[in-house]
């Protein structure tokens, strides 16, 4: 995976993190950050290390975009749900 693909994955993670922070009731100030980090990790794993499953769809600088997008969204949503369940609701939220 080259530099331009890594930049695309990081920007997509930031966008998903912002969306996760804005939608619903954020239980902590770190919902978006945790979601963004999980998205980047999931995208890299799904786009690079899943063998034959990760070699379909368009490619950008050595990264297959569709598996990366699916893996990133799945892990990002799971992380966001885990954070929202783990942190109790407060009167400030």
Stretches with pLDDT under 50, minimum 5 residues: none
Oligomer: single chain
Structural class: mainly alpha
Distance between the termini: 39 Å
Helix content: 55-70%
Short descriptors:
single chain, 93 residues, mainly alpha, two-stranded antiparallel ribbon, 3 helices, 4% strand
Could you describe the 3D structure shown?
- This protein has helices at residues 3-22, 31-48, 65-86, and strands at 59-60, 63-64.
- The mean pLDDT is 83.
- The N and C termini lie far apart (39 Å).
- The protein has 93 residues and is mainly alpha-helical.
- Strand 1 and strand 2 (63-64) form a beta hairpin.
- Helix 1 (3-22) runs antiparallel to helix 2 and helix 1 (3-22) packs parallel to helix 3 (65-86).
- Strands 1-2 form a two-stranded antiparallel ribbon.
- The chain has one domain (3-86).
Summarize the structure.
With 93 residues, the chain is mainly alpha-helical.
Write the layout of secondary structure elements.
Blueprint: H1 3-22, H2 31-48, E1 59-60, E2 63-64, H3 65-86
């Amino acid at each position: 995976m080259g530099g331009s693909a890594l930049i695309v994955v990081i920007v997509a993670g930031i966008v998903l993190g912002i969306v996760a922070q804005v939608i619903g009731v954020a239980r902590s100030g770190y919902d978006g950050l945790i979601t963004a980090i999980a998205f980047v990790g999931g995208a890299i794993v799904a786009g690079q290390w899943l063998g034959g499953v990760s070699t379909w769809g368009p490619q950008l600088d050595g990264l297959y975009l569709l598996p990366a997008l699916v893996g990133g969204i799945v892990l990002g949503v799971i992380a966001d749900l885990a954070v929202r369940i783990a942190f109790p609701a407060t009167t400030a939220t």
